[in-house]
What does this fold into?
Amino acid sequence: GVCPIHAERGDLKGAIKNAKDFTGSRFSWADKHSHGSHVAGIIGGRQGNGIGIAGIANLCDLYIAKGLDDNGSGDDESIAKSIYWCVDEGCKVCSCSLGSQFDSPAISAAIDYGVGKGCLFVVAAGNSGDGISYPARLEKVISVGATTEDGTLAEFSCRGSEQDVACPGVRVLSCGANGGYVVMSGTSQSAPYAAAIFALAISAGVKFTGTADNARDWLRTVTVDTGPAGDDPFFGIGMFDVQKLLAAENPEPPKPPTTPVREEIIKLGPLPVDLVLHYPAKAGDIASVNVRPSG
It folds into this structure.
């Protein structure tokens, strides 16, 4: 869920296009323990409003599906319904800050449905410090681990061959329940960081098909290899590189074609130089004159 105060007059005002509860909570889609609000703020907290924080994709549209109850727990059916709803709402990136040690056929089927509709799933790797949790372990999603302030892998971050990328996940400040702000740590914070970058890429014209392999190909162009050389179980492909991201979103414009000109050489008699006239190829262009040694 998400904090109604932030949604109505705080850092998420204007960001949330729709919200729905799938847990049967008496508080509807309202967030009661800050987790959902924190994730939403990392992605889409508005910039320039004079308060709080700014999210990474701070002009994006957010669709809030409450699949975890007011205590932060959830069942497969509620989570699967949340995914179906997000996909049917037209979401292109689905950030999932949840996990289990067991695979869920219901959740996996919902993800398959989303991938088939072109939705990319970005999932928290887990916080147990051992193997990647589900659904982050699935090949069809992007698994995100957590890094510390100094760029090392967080001790709690799950690791394994399924890891795809690592993002900041320690002491992250974002929106909390009751209109406040809280500092939280976990791969739950790393996943929305990555999801927001994918959203920015889409806004810049990058085409994702929904398949994780397509997204991984793009990741290789905007990350820096971190940890052991090549894909590794700690950082996956690597960490996002700001300079590469900026270059990807703002490519150098193509140089205009050289305008053909007509050239005339005038011999200056005994002088050891020639006068070279460059006539414009079309009316309105400017002619130029050069002097060069005779030869």
